[in-house]
Amino acid sequence: MHEYAQDAMTYVRNYGRLDLFITFTCNPKWPEITNQLLTGQTPSDRHDITARVFKQKIVVLMNYIVKQKVFGAIRCWMYSVEWQKRGLAHAHILLWMFDKVRPDHIDSIISVEIPDPETDPELHSVVTTNMIHGPCGTQNPGSPCMQNGNCIKRFPRPFVADTISGIDGYPLYRRRSPDDNGRSIIMKVKGKYVVVDNRWIVPYCPLLSKTFSNHCNVEYCNSIKSIKYVCKYVNKESDMAVFGIADPNANDEVMKFQLGRYVSCNEAIWRLFSFTIHERHPTVVHLAVHLENGQRVNFTEANAAQRAERPPATTLTNFFYMRKRSFQRRKKGDAVAGFADVYSTDSLGRIYTVHPRQDECFFLRLLLVNVRGPTSFNSLRTVDGVLCTTFREACQCLICSKNDSHWDLTLADATVSAPANQIRTLFAIIIATCHPSNPNALWEKYKDEMVDDILHRVRTTNFNFDIESNDEMRNEALVLIEDMCVLMCGSLLSTLGLPAPNRSRHAAFNLELQREKNYDLDEQAERVRKNVPLLNAEQKNVYDSLMKVVDDGTGGIYFLDALGGTGKTFVISLILATIRSRSQIALAVAYSGIAATLLEGGRTAHSALKLPMNLLMVDKSTTTSAQRPRIQRQRN
User: Fold this and answer.
1) Is residue 315 within 8 Å of 343, Cβ to Cβ?
2) CATH of domain 2-110+203-272
């Protein structure tokens, strides 16, 4: 799936931002499904029918879009099918168009308003049945989309008189209020009737909704920055689950854990039918990146020696072979004007991405990007007639004879497809090992791309997507970059030509610490006041003993053991509330996720302390840096 996401970014690199992002969901009430059910059956009883019908619907939808060009000529497209533990399938579709969708054309394609029931009753029925979010919020606080009193999907959306094209992400679509001729309906939610207006409508295309009568979300994408998240989301891997095998006759609650893919019944049928999960056009051809004789070799015991002696060819070795000899071009594709016997196809090419920690392969890739017409691995390691020992040495010698434009191009290429944390890692490697002449100029040019994930995290945490990047976020990025530089070369940023980060500001920006200090003191104090009198004598003795240790600051390790149902969780929760009511930090850590959910703010020990999954591996240390936010939280 990572490969598919990189292929999607190849489209972005060649053709710019995508235009439309469509989520097409299976509707179990489609007549093609219900007409095939036997008496007493439901769609969940016949996943073979729902899978076949949804596959046919996707084929029809893609023909509708690509061949019939309902949105215009499509330059390239990609879709992936997923299930997300909810049973029925849905497809995420990305579309790049020849004629880009202009902001003034958005309203002709996408709507977020309730249709007129008199002029178009069919569309009105489809939208009110399939395209209403929730309602949630105060009308339904128990909705699955609610977290900490806020809707993670940001509903209800504000009323907007006219569509506004946003700077980043999705635009603000026109949502007229009832006072501005906007419509509303009354629907029943949790046994009570509520008014639903345009604020609760999910963006849809009237043409597609009326044609397919299902949940079909259509979004306009107007920013390159949002594309990386969209492409990664569309091509994410299958859901995973941790499950345990319990022995009812054993004292241990859980004897063994397994980590595996979660495959629902519908997904299993889909795979048994060999239906495609991912499709795209045009084809993306990959140039392999591997060291000499480092390509992957598949072998058996019978042919191991033969395969080792003659390893298989790769696109990289074939490229070297073609460069060494004159070859006859296959006359395939469309003739290129002005070039005799040269033909082109709509296929695109890209070089596999390599993580900077793969030292030699990473520098081999840099040389492949910047050296024209290499004929072998040795030719890549040759600079000014001198054969270098390693690709890293060759890369450094090559760059020493040039200016910093190479690193500018390297970072520019990374910002198109790589997430912000990988861009920071790449930048740290460049300034720590390659010594560019003006690292501060590179930082100033690409600092916004390096804080993109920090900005996204802050927006999500605060449920405010209007927040813009600021000095605190850039300071946090500098702290992370400096931590990597210290590990790689033992130097601080101030010695490498970059501004030194403010560590105290970084601590103030520590979200882990803020989360633990964000409890309502009055609420915690009220919980203590109400529950302390409810403690029995034995519970009160435990409570007083532990609180005395806290008040004295002596610390210690205590083990609370009692039968189930005797109030262990009640006492521990009360101790946590007492400490938090004093504006102090109390971490609730448990061995299992189920136990952690019983405590307010509970975390598993593996997550909070970064413990290895197998605690018997005594030679394996934790992976937490002393400068990480969670360590600063624990110190407090």
Assistant:
1) no
2) 3.30.70.1910
